[in-house]
Amino acid sequence: MRLLIIEDEPGIAGFLKEGLEEEYFAVDTASDGKSGLDLAMTNEYDLLIIDWMLPGLSGIEVCRQVRKSGNAVPVILLTARDTLEDVVFGLDNGANDYIKKPFEFEELLARIRVQLRSRSDGEDSLKAGELTLNPVTHQAFCDRNEIVLTPKEFSLLEYLMRNKGKVCTRSRIIEHVWDIHFDSDTSVIDVYITFLRKKLEAAGCRGLIQTIRGVGYIIREQDTQ
Ligand code: CA
Q: What is the Å distance from ligand 1's center to 113 Cα?
């Protein structure tokens, strides 16, 4: 999953980026409202974390413009303001949630999960056939066999599973699994898919990731009964 953090305080932005990357997210950052809005309009993010008080364009204004463009990406506002009026104003302008500074990283992470979960089917664990993936613990199991995955393999599999039954094109996979510094050679996806398939097969999950030639990949739920 790919996140964008728009935050002008370098300490907070750096701390969040590092922490979220450790949680296997691909993370881009912007330090002012204008460049943040540009990134949000150009790339496909799974969630935006926006500071309310930003130089140039405020976080609320960024949020409003993102919504105005028809983009329904979940938005969590970071704010030092927490009067009822402020909160209502933030939510009225398109934020899905807010968190008051200073906050604990674990709380932000929990709120991010709530937002991502409500977009899938309300479950923390993702399932396809005998394969189960837990984005909280970063564990993958085929039936009861644990599959040890690298962070990138896990992120790629998570993206495919969150889009189970839909074709994931190479460009969308790159958009959602890699960050902005990636040089966009999509052949890296094939390499990771090969690794993933080997590990899944070794654990007993065969044929789960299917190739759509010239387009991308899909996980189709197979009836194993
Ligand atoms: Ca600020």
A: 23
Q: CB burial class (10 A; 0-12, 13-18, 19+) of residue 76?
A: buried
Whether residue 96 is contained in a domain is answered as: yes
Asked whether residue 109 falls in the same domain as residue 6, the answer is yes
Q: Which residues surround the ion ligand 1 when the cut-off is CB under 5 Å?
A: 8, 51, 53
Q: Can you give the pTM of this predicted structure?
A: 0.86
Measured in Å, residue 57 CA sits from the centre of ligand 1 at 11
pLDDT profile of the chain (225 residues), mean per 10: 97 96 96 97 96 94 96 94 82 92 94 83 81 92 94 95 94 91 83 96 94 94 55
Q: Are residues 175 and 69 in the same domain?
A: no
Contact 158, 1 (CB under 8 A): yes
Distance CA 88, CA 24 (A): 32
Contact 132, 5 (CB under 8 A): no
Q: DSSP letter for 120, please.
A: T
Question: How far does the centroid of ligand 1 lie from the alpha carbon of residue 16, in Å?
Answer: 14
225 within some domain? no
Preceding peptide of 102 cis, ω within 30° = yes
- The parent domain of residue 6 ranges over 2-119
Residue 121: DSSP 8-state: T
What's the structural domain count of the chain? 2
Spatial separation of the C-alpha atoms in residues 62 and 33, rounded to whole Å: 6
